């Protein structure tokens, strides 16, 4: 069935904004500027402030939700289901997980390449599968276990590619290893977030945009307040600011004032996360969850290709192998091989789009705010 212009627009919007989200964060990291008090020129390494901006982008999804509700009320649109009453505090535990995982990933992005960052995030499948068995009582199909094993193999190959690649003064080998480990550690926290969302949030039938907005609100408020004590917590060599503190928001604002392009990169990160969440949810609704996952995989290719073209990283052939293995693991875990086998064999009934969405989203839900 041919896609409509609107569906093509949504698919393109998801691919473009998802790629911009990671690339703009890495672009900001690559800038160097003087800080406050005449400090020497140094890299813009402010992961916690960047995480605050990301949550601000998620918070803006609330505006999109209420706009959709107003339009539905005027047009009697039945596609926006009536919202059940619920306590917003239900979103606090997953928001705390999101805040911790996102902050760790932004720290790691300072240490490793954008493409490895995007590929290693595939580790979430491993921990989500294990936690869903342990805490949700779910039984995984044999193909899902094979998908988990394939994902582990893919992570090993991507890690080897990072170890064997040439490293410049900005990304030393020890930093790359630390960054890769932090990304994988963050996926454990993201997996806990997904389990919490499924156990407490999904059963209330909360609209995804509303869920993203509420979690964004909690993350934005809490992390903004935490920037104050972070300004006084020493972090030694782990810190990227002249004062050696865990986060120096004032130094970040001084650098933005001296290099306005940093503000453009931060704005790209904030706005892209909001549009990406909206586009991802709309693609799942208008097309299928399979399409969303394929587009998410294409996003990794776009990020990788642009990072190479911009000279942000050096090509290593092992990355291709690692990406393909990770892609196979994702496909197996999410059941994307079933429609393919049905199409090839012509002996079994091909699942409808509704059935496909139910299987992918009902059995293996992606996180509410999958874009971070």
User: What form results from the Cα inertia axes?
Assistant: globular
Largest sheet: 2 strands, antiparallel
Distance between the termini: 31 Å
Strand order of the largest sheet: 1-2
Radius of gyration: 21 Å
Helix content: over 70%
Number of strands: 2
Structure description:
The chain has 372 residues and is mostly helical. Helix content is 70%, strand content 1%. It has helices spanning 5-30, 47-59, 61-75, 92-109, 114-120, 124-135, 142-164, 173-201, 208-230, 249-258, 260-286, 289-309, 317-333, 337-345, 353-363; strands spanning 32-33, 42-43. The protein has a two-stranded antiparallel ribbon with strand order 1-2. A hairpin with an 8-residue loop joins β1 (32-33) and β2. α4 runs antiparallel to α8, α7 (142-164) runs antiparallel to α13 and α11 runs antiparallel to α12. The longest helix has 29 residues, at 173-201. The chain is globular.
Salient structural properties:
372 residues, mainly alpha, 70% helix, globular
What can be said about this structure in brief?
Residues 63-158 form the EamA domain. The chain is mostly helical.
In terms of topology, how is this protein built?
Blueprint: H1 5-30, E1 32-33, E2 42-43, H2 47-59, H3 61-75, H4 92-109, H5 114-120, H6 124-135, H7 142-164, H8 173-201, H9 208-230, H10 249-258, H11 260-286, H12 289-309, H13 317-333, H14 337-345, H15 353-363
Antiparallel strand pairs: 1-2
């Amino acid at each position: 069935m041919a896609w409509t212009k609107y569906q093509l627009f949504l698919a393109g919007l998801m691919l473009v904004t998802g790629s911009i989200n990671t690339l703009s964060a890495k672009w900001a990291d690559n800038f160097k500027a003087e800080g406050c008090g005449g400090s020497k020129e140094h890299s813009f390494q402010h992961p916690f402030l960047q995480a605050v901006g990301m949550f601000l982008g998620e918070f803006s999804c609330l505006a999109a939700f209420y706009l959709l509700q107003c339009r539905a009320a005027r047009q009697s649109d039945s596609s926006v289901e009536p919202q059940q009453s619920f306590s917003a505090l239900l979103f606090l535990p997953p928001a705390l997980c999101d805040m911790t995982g996102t902050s760790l990933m932004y720290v790691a992005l300072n240490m490793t390449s954008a493409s490895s960052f995007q590929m290693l995030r595939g580790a979430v499948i491993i921990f989500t599968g294990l936690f869903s068995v342990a805490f949700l009582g779910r039984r995984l199909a044999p193909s899902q276990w094979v998908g988990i094993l394939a994902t582990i193999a893919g992570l090993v190959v991507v890690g080897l590619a990072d170890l064997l690649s040439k490293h410049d003064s900005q990304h030393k080998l020890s930093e790359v290893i630390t960054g890769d480990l932090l990304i994988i550690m963050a996926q454990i926290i993201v997996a806990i977030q997904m389990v919490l969302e499924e156990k407490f949030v999904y059963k209330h039938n909360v609209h995804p945009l509303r869920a993203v907005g509420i979690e964004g609100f909690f993350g934005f408020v809490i992390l903004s307040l935490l920037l104050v004590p972070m300004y006084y917590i020493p972090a030694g060599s782990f810190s990227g600011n002249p004062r050696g503190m865990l986060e120096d928001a004032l130094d970040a604002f001084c650098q933005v004032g001296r290099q306005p392009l940093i503000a453009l990169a931060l704005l790209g990160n904030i706005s892209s996360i909001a549009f990406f969440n909206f586009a991802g949810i709309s693609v799942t609704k208008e097309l299928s969850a399979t399409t969303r996952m394929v587009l998410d995989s294409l996003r990794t290719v776009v990020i990788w290709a642009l990072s190479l073209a911009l000279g942000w990283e050096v090509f290593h052939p092992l990355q291709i192998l690692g990406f393909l293995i990770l892609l196979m693991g994702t496909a197996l875990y999410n059941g994307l091989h079933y429609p393919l086998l049905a199409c090839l064999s012509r002996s079994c009934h091909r699942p409808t789009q509704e059935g496909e969405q139910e299987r992918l989203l009902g059995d293996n839900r992606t996180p509410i705010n999958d874009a971070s």
